[in-house]
């Protein structure tokens, strides 16, 4: 029994920290405003607890992002169409990008914070490499489409957190307008005729 209590406490503290960080990143004016001290205070734990559990602020942000993204990741890896692995690539690529765009619209400040953690380049971040590999693999299956590696980079550029924040936050472009514009661009890249082919 004495061995299990620390584990239970650690799990409870971790959940409290992630919940507090989630709230703070959702409500903040800028992700840079959210500090480890703020998160510790909101979670009711000491700063040392945060550093022991997550290493540093970047580790905490990555853990929170991964937790928030888990439903999307599960749908992509195991789910049905239009996100799942059995979806034809012409339908899956727009669906993947729309899902990622919606996630970033819903988690703008957290996504900004995560993309800012790429030390030398955001393109070297683990989350970016995962999405790029997924898109590249799908694009390689589309007849007539060349240079799937660069195309995957170009498509991911349209859902970068800083662009999403610029459009949704600074310019106040409505969510559905952003989705429609993104779908139109993706359809053009894939050789389609318009956003009607993209997920809704």
TrEMBL record:
Keyword DNA-binding belongs to the record: yes
UniProtKB keywords: DNA-binding
Residue intervals of the HTH tetR-type domain: 11-72
Keyword DNA-binding on entry: yes
DNA-binding residues (ranges): 35-54
PANTHER family xref list: HTH-TYPE TRANSCRIPTIONAL REGULATOR RUTR, POSSIBLE TRANSCRIPTIONAL REGULATORY PROTEIN (PROBABLY TETR-FAMILY)
Protein's name according to its UniProt entry: TetR/AcrR family transcriptional regulator
Lineage: Bacteria, Bacillati, Actinomycetota, Actinomycetes, Kitasatosporales
């Amino acid at each position: 029994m004495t061995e299990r209590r620390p584990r239970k406490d650690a799990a409870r503290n971790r959940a409290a920290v992630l919940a507090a960080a989630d709230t703070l990143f959702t409500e903040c004016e800028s992700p840079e405003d959210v500090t480890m001290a703020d998160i510790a205070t909101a979670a009711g734990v000491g700063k040392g607890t945060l550093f022991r559990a997550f290493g540093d602020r970047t580790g905490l942000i990555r853990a929170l992002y991964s937790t928030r993204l888990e439903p999307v990741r599960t749908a992509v890896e195991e789910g049905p169409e239009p996100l799942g692995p059995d979806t034809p690539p012409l339908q899956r690529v727009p669906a993947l990008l729309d899902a990622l765009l919606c996630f970033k619209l819903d988690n703008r400040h957290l996504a900004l914070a995560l993309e800012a953690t790429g030390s030398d380049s955001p393109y070297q971040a683990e989350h970016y490499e995962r999405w790029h590999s997924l898109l590249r693999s799908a694009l390689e299956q589309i007849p007539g489409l060349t240079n799937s590696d660069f195309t995957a980079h170009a498509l991911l550029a349209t859902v970068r957190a800083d662009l999403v924040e610029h459009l949704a936050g600074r310019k106040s472009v409505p969510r559905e307008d952003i989705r429609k514009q993104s779908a139109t661009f993706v359809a053009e890249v894939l050789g389609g005729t318009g956003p009607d082919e993209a997920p809704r």
